[in-house]
Amino acid sequence: MLTPHRRILLLAAVPVIAAATLATAEFTSAFAADEQPAAPRAAASAVPSPAAGSPTATTKPAEGAGTPAATVAPSPAGPAPSATARPKTARPAATGKAPAPLTVQELPNQAKAGWKPIGSPKSRDVAPSSSLNECAAVEGATGWQQQGWASAAKTPAIQDTFTFATPTDADRARQVLNTQLDGCQTALRDAQTKQGRTPDATSSRTATSPAAGAWQYQWTAVPGMSAPGAQTHHVYLAAAGNVLTVLQYSDLTSAGQGNSATPASDADLLTTLAGSLALTR
């Protein structure tokens, strides 16, 4: 398991709704203007979500180049709303060389989630390996921008955008992340076993395109980077040029949430995410 070296996303350790309020407050402080950043941490913490069904074992689609429309993978188990088109809206200003984050209208399940931004995009210190969640870490980045949002249920969403010295470095990091996320089930079950829990984690890739991919994992999380308890965690990855971006959010059973995504909505979001990078090239 990858261990973060920074306490930026402590909201990722939100165990229940009551604790979620405190975690969101801490997350807000991390984004407060002029606040001294916490001690360097290797990456962006992930935010898992509530269990809802159990997707099948991970399969890895072929990779290519460019950012065409995403294709839909076989549907994982669990209820979820249908995909909806995201309106085109003006993006906030970007930080440094990184493109601006998604708008709230472009975030997943916005109609029900009611996402609200937590401050403005912030630049973070990069490390040789920056942990995203229990399964994956970004390697070799030269810049890092982070934006957070809180849902009406006080659950978090995070977009981490990394810049690299060259497009080759960015694509290499993307391929490493693909492999790590495709193998996430093993990493999660190892974490559960080490803490004496029943290894019930399942993981699957839900949508893909040549330079983007979507995954979800469902498990009874153990303390660490995730809120303990049943949840479904969603991960969206896209790369273009020398930029790589990762969006993550959680559906927590303790917050009364079920799986909020379908393969169709994940493919739609991948197209939006990849498109946001293409606009900056």
Main attributes?
single chain, alpha+beta, eight-stranded antiparallel β-sheet, two-stranded antiparallel sheet, 5 helices, 10 strands, 22% helix, disordered N terminus, PknH-like protein, signal
Quick rundown:
The chain has 281 residues and is of the alpha+beta class.
Report on the architecture of this protein.
The protein has 281 residues and is of the alpha+beta class. The protein has one domain (10-278). The protein is built from five helices and ten strands. It has helices at residues 17-30, 110-113, 167-182, 184-194, 263-278, and strands at residues 71-72, 116-123, 129-131, 137-139, 143-150, 156-163, 202-209, 212-221, 229-240, 243-252. The protein has an eight-stranded antiparallel β-sheet, with helices on both faces. A hairpin with a 5-residue loop joins strand 5 (143-150) and strand 6. The protein is globular. The termini are far apart. The relative contact order is 0.24. Residues 1-69 and 71-96 have low confidence and may be disordered. Keywords: Signal. Residues 1-25 form the signal peptide. Residues 42-95, 198-210 have a biased composition (Low complexity). Residues 42-131, 190-210 are annotated as: Disordered. This is PknH-like protein.
